[in-house]
Amino acid sequence: DGGITQSPKYLFRKEGQNVTLSCEQNLNHDAMYWYRQDPGQGLRLIYYSQIVNDFQKGDIAEGYSVSREKKESFPLTVTSAQKNPTAFYLCASSIPGYEQYFGPGTRLTVT
Amino acid sequence: AQRVTQPEKLLSVFKGAPVELKCNYSYSGSPELFWYVQYSRQRLQLLLRHISRESIKGFTADLNKGETSFHLKKPFAQEEDSAMYYCALSGLSYNQGGKLIFGQGTELSVKP
Q1: Strands A64-66 and A76-78, how do they pair?
Q2: What is the pLDDT along chain A (111 residues), one digit of tens a residue?
């Protein structure tokens, strides 16, 4: 299971703290994505990036921030402004318009 | 509005029975439709896409533009088909960024 990795697998934070989730890929894909997965709601797009140094908001970007300084890396920061941050976060990459490859996910719990 | 709807949260069938997971979409343009699957403790992965017209693990899906549907079918369900299934669409324009719009997911349970 190489290709796209996310770390850590589980993350626990106190309310009010920012936290950064890592996503790395070695597939040479230009596009990368962050989704949030909640039971009964499917996957919802947080941010996506089609190319280095560029990214766009998805459907639920409020309270999140990203950077894309390298092609291989697309970290997601969950800020204290995110009202309901406890969730399962999935990162994906692709050649734009082609199949998306998903990472194993990070389960974030904020108490 | 762009939307994917999977009306069933849970679908339970017996081994050997036919299975159909429903997916309806709303999109103003030419979408590409996908089915992704997530087996227990595994990553989300592509099952099939309508453009390729492939049959994967015995599953097929036909795009019906008139009914805006992309239902997933298999004539004889197997226990190993038990998983979470997501229908998704993507705009075919490069400007869409390849981003996917997912349905809510249907959990398929195949009983022995």
Answers
A1: antiparallel
A2: 569 999 999 999 998 899 999 999 999 999 999 999 998 788 999 999 999 999 999 999 999 999 999 999 999 999 988 889 999 999 999 987 778 999 999 999 998
B104–A contact, CB cutoff 8 A = yes
Nearest by CB to residue B44, choosing from A40, A58, A90, is A90
Contact with chain A for residue B41, Cβ under 8 A:
no
Distance CA B4, CA B14 (A): 27
Helix H or strand E segment including A6? strand A4-7
Distance CA(A34)–CA(A92), nearest Å, equals 6
Which residue in A44, A94, A103 is closest to B98 by CB distance?
A: A94
